[in-house]
Amino acid sequence: MSRHLLDLDDLSASELSDVLDLSEQVDLGRPLAGRGVALLFEKPSTRTRHSTEMAVVQLGGHPAYVRADEVGIDERETAEDVARTLACYHATTCARVFDHTRLTRMAAASPVPVVNLLSDLAHPVQALADLLTIRQELGRLAGVTLAWVGDWSNVARSLCFGAALCGLHVRVAAPDGYGPTEPDLERLVLAGAASVDAAHRAADAVKGADVVVTDAWYSMGQESEAQARRRAFEGFGVDAALMSGAASTAIFLHCLPAHRGEEVASEVLEGPHSRVWAEATNRMHTMRGLLAWLARQPGRP
Ligand code: CP
Ligand code: NVA
Predict the structure, then answer these.
(1) Superfamily of domain 8-123+283-295 in the CATH hierarchy
(2) Residue 301: its pLDDT value, please?
(3) Measuring from atom 4 of ligand 1, which residue has the nearest CA?
(4) Per residue in 106-127, pLDDT tens?
(5) What pTM value is reported for the model?
């Protein structure tokens, strides 16, 4: 039975640590030599597509990009039949989809690993890069305080869950109706977070934090809500005044693309705390680590 990565809870804490360790090895050999990796996209992408393509190349494989409208998932044929077909030619299927259940259906039918390249619910490969960046910049993960400010987005869910798995303190500040639910918070506690705090004010969440993270106020597919969300998120933008409440050594992360003047001020994105380009670079290293780890799993076809 294949391992999949639909969200970070598909990995144990020690497996997550192994993936991060592999991600720091520059030469992982050519475990994908002569193999393909299918990259299926229903939404636009810059970082995810290019970092994954280059990670596949570095592992000796061939990335095969395909736009979802060429495949016609659940129109030309079912998501299950698409997954089974791609598995006839590729070592792994990676997909960016609107509806997470499409991924769970593909994974259930696929004899090769299915990797989530972003869905409405989760963005685990982004979280891997964020955790590696925190570990590299701060020298540790357990005990670090991470403040998530803004929308409880796909990126927030995966990163906060990964942070919990690695023993970080997790704080979240979001406007009413846009933050984590009680079950979300319980999931963080059960995953092993050092502490979990859903502060309402951004300043409370950021106070003394080691890492401050945010994401767009409206994700791909939510463009019609942009105006309403801009109003709802007033006071939740990360600017220099907010960052001044964090630890003096704090780092700022953002998955990108950024909306300067909305969720983040230019002065923060371009400022001394920002590590967003190290984070973007780590997308390629963590994808290489993940694909190499998947290639090493027992029973891998
Ligand atoms: N952070 C991220 O996933 O970027 P893309 O949407 O450009 O892939
Ligand atoms: N939450 C954003 C992340 C983009 C990488 C989105 O889903 O559009």
Answers:
(1) Aspartate/ornithine carbamoyltransferase (3.40.50.1370)
(2) 64
(3) 47
(4) 999 999 999 999 999 999 999 9
(5) 0.98
